[in-house]
TrEMBL record:
Protein family (similarity comment): Belongs to the ferritin family. Prokaryotic subfamily.
Catalytic activity: 4 Fe(2+) + O2 + 6 H2O = 4 iron(III) oxide-hydroxide + 12 H(+)
Keyword Lipoprotein: no
Provenance organism: Rikenella microfusus
Described purpose of this protein according to its UniProt entry: May alleviate iron toxicity in the presence of oxygen. Iron-storage protein.
Keyword ATP-binding: no
Keyword vocabulary terms for this entry: Cytoplasm, Iron, Iron storage, Metal-binding, Oxidoreductase
CDD domains listed in its UniProt record: Nonheme_Ferritin
Official protein name in the record: Ferritin
Single GO cellular component term: cytosol
Enzyme class: oxidoreductase
Length: 169
């Protein structure tokens, strides 16, 4: 059984994952409005992945006989000055999510909740991948800064991203 402290922390985290989904949908819409079809595609997939993350936590809490209490999702920004600014915000956001996952690990440890600690390993690894992917794109954007052709090429490449459901944990 989940302790109240662990359950509350997981519930708060479900909200954080849904907020991430909302943020990336907003980025996708902004990119789309500005003609960056590839970047819009990349963020639309990111939107789906964040919903997957929330669902994985929901499934886990339910599997442990816990309760989910959905709370309001806070407002997100709607516009970014450039793709570079968008990806900078994305990296900063993913670093925050990593810190949140680390916080959950600390609570699982304090509560001697080994099942939750074990479940969180997948998310710890996922965050390494999330940050690396965004950092790679950010590096590319920094390399071509000021070049419209460079930006066009990156947008085209990001248009090739395909959604894949989360791999087995
Ligand atoms: Fe759910 Fe992008 O971390």
């Amino acid at each position: 059984m989940l302790s109240t402290k662990m359950q509350d922390a997981l519930n708060a985290h479900i909200n954080a994952e849904l907020w991430s989904a909302y943020l990336y949908l907003s980025m996708s819409l902004d990119a789309s409005a500005k003609g960056y079809k590839g970047i819009a595609n990349w963020y639309a997939i990111q939107f789906k992945e964040e919903q997957d993350h929330a669902q994985l936590f929901i499934d886990y809490v339910l599997a442990r006989g816990g309760r989910i209490a959905l709370s309001p999702i806070a407002e997100v920004p709607t516009e970014w000055e450039s793709p570079l600014a968008m990806f900078r915000d994305t990296l900063a956001h993913e670093q925050k999510v990593t810190a949140l996952i680390d916080g959950l690990c600390r609570i699982a440890d304090e509560e001697k909740d080994f099942a939750t600690a074990n479940k969180l390993v997948w998310f710890v690894n996922e965050q390494v991948e999330e940050e690396e992917n965004v950092r790679d794109i950010l590096d590319q954007l920094n390399m071509v800064e000021g070049s419209k052709m460079g930006l066009y090429m990156i947008d085209k490449e990001l248009g090739g991203r395909v959604y894949a459901a989360p791999a087995a944990e």
